[in-house]
Amino acid sequence: MMTTSPVERAADQFVTALAHWRVERGMSKKQLAARMGFDPSYVSHVEGRRHKPTEDFARRAEAVLGAGGAIWERFQEYDQLRHARSTALHRDPPVPVQWLPPGTGLIVEREVAELTFVDGTYRCRVRRALYNAGSEPVTRYLVKIAVDRYPNDPTGSNRHHREHPLTFDEMALVACAGEGDAIEPMQWRVKLDRDASKEIWLLFANERGQFALYPGERTTIEYAYTVGVEKWGQWFQRAVRLPTRRLTVRLDFPAGFDPQVWGVETSLAAEVPVRTPMERHDQGDRAVFEWSTDAPQLNARYRLEWRFRGANAPSYPAVAPSANNGNQRASGQMRGVGIVQRGSELLRQRARHFQLPREETEARETVDALLSALARLEQVHDFTKGVGLSAPQIGRSVAVAVVRAAGGESEPVVLLNPRVVGESADRDEQYEGCLSFFDYRGLVKRPERIDVEHARYDGTRVITTFERAMARLVAHEIDHLEGRLYVDRMNAESNLVPDYQRPWAV
């Protein structure tokens, strides 16, 4: 159905943002509704455009999903257009800006994490300003510590840490809570002790007694530990496990090591460079790198990586000695081939249709680029069940896709300006994957037959019928051209399944 007014377009954009961030956070509609304090069906009604979003709904969705303001911004655009039509319309009652999800416990108002290299060891120090936004006193705080000496060689790294396990004795963990003259040492208790990872409960208690953090109260905790260079790889990662208002990460290296530092933001959706530049400050013979972000995304991971170029710097081989390099993560292979990865705004935009035959040259050039990319893909993976590729996946927001049927022997089908004009009532549910989201797959129900109207280069249009496996592949690619991913079509109760080898349809 075509959107007919600016208000309806703005509502669609709000729903698109809501669905995108819900999927990115790995939540079903039912789970999101529960976190927001709504009836389980409410999110489905909003995403299905049966209910219009309210200010209360938008604020709660933004708070739960931590979308960096994207959901709230889309609602404001919709709300302004909606009320501009008539001054007589009733506005929703205002909602407090500081609304928090039901059951919210601790909030990290600020985290400062610092990693310092001195005399062959790394000293990590983390300082967190906490606010208890829950309804119960907090008596302990979970800390997770992990090392990975060879991040590019998981097998070799696991073997290395089995032979050289991280120990509490070498870590010399210390922790405290409070500020100024009211600092209290914190006792700690082991929850998990593995070769390369530890989980520790920091207790709001010591030999003098307990000092629980009560609802509405604030405090600052700080903990620090040491790891030798033989066990610490070239990365420092902060995982956002609690709602966090601000995150700052510092790396402090000898300037003589000639360090080069960069940052990566990783979520279920994508791995992209951090969105703001790294700052470097030289302090005597030290090189200090600092990076900060406001409102970091919940469940995201922010990783700073480095290499030392100085002659006297410690060596960091990419793989463990005598180790097998193993297989590169599948999404990394796709990125290396030139496939745009999930998280890019390009994959959420409706592709522009070609004006044919006037734009025949551009259309042919784009098809050639798609076929070249398809050839590179087939050198990386054997797509025995078929493969498809859309123009947005190679960075071009135009409405064309190519699809090769199972077996790989036939010529790819070229779809210019395609749209589904008919489909069967019979539907089949199968696992699908995506070249732009290659490490996971999910169950998707699609019609067993679709009728697709598409264009020739001369502008004439034809209708082609596709059935079964080919119908699924073609429907998947047409979804790409409409700014939709297969995860948007998954049942609300379905979960993504890791699949590091090969998805069903791409």
From TrEMBL:
SUPFAM superfamilies: lambda repressor-like DNA-binding domains, Peptide deformylase. Keywords: Hydrolase, Iron, Metal-binding, Protein biosynthesis. Fe cation binds at residues 434, 476, 480. InterPro entries: Cro/C1-type_HTH, Lambda_DNA-bd_dom_sf, Peptide_deformylase, Peptide_deformylase_sf. Its cofactor is Fe(2+). It catalyses: N-terminal N-formyl-L-methionyl-[peptide] + H2O = N-terminal L-methionyl-[peptide] + formate. Removes the formyl group from the N-terminal Met of newly synthesized proteins. Requires at least a dipeptide for an efficient rate of reaction. N-terminal L-methionine is a prerequisite for activity but the enzyme has broad specificity at other positions. This is Peptide deformylase. It comes from Paractinoplanes deccanensis. The lineage of its organism: Bacteria, Bacillati, Actinomycetota, Actinomycetes, Micromonosporales.
